[in-house]
Design brief:
mainly alpha, about 160 residues, globular
């Protein structure tokens, strides 16, 4: 969940294929190789400080080790839907209604980042959107269509 929430990784396409060698601890970045990504481009995402300390276990793994290996064969990643299925079972056990998904953590992370004041260009880079227009469309789909905060945050001209 933290990889999705903090790094905006896609839970079924990218996260299961993540390997220790993709985590660049010194640079505090994660490489999402093109063959593992939705857009087929190799790109980097930042590892936020609040999440970095959670990744200490990566130092103990070899670069080819999957962070989420298959239970049957550790040399292979977990199945594409395994995380979604597990998440659904937890939601069901906690009596959550429909409308929640593992992907919702990405949306929640983006919304929290935006509300925290992280600029839209930084969100664009972290989401790995090819254009600011794509990020704008994504933000509108999450309910942010207006120029939030501008009217209340602009300072008066000083004379």
């Amino acid at each position: 969940i933290q990889f999705i929430y903090y790094c905006f990784l896609r839970p079924s396409r990218e996260l299961p294929k993540l390997q220790a060698g993709d985590i660049l601890m010194e640079e505090r970045e994660i490489l999402v190789p093109g063959h593992k990504s939705k857009n087929k481009k190799s790109q980097y995402v930042a590892i936020p400080d609040v999440f970095f300390k959670q990744l200490a276990f990566v130092y103990e793994l070899g670069p080819a080790a999957y962070l989420f290996p298959s239970r049957i064969n550790a040399q292979k990643p977990i199945g594409r839907n395994t995380m979604n299925n597990r998440h659904s079972r937890f939601l069901q056990a906690l009596n959550f209604g429909a409308g929640y998904s593992l992907y919702s953590w990405k949306h929640t992370g983006v919304v929290k980042a935006y509300k925290k004041g992280i600029d839209i260009k930084a969100i664009q880079r972290q989401c790995r959107h090819s254009s600011i227009e794509m990020t704008d469309k994504y933000m509108r789909s999450l309910g942010f269509g207006k120029n939030e905060g501008f009217a209340s945050k602009i300072d008066e001209i000083e004379i």
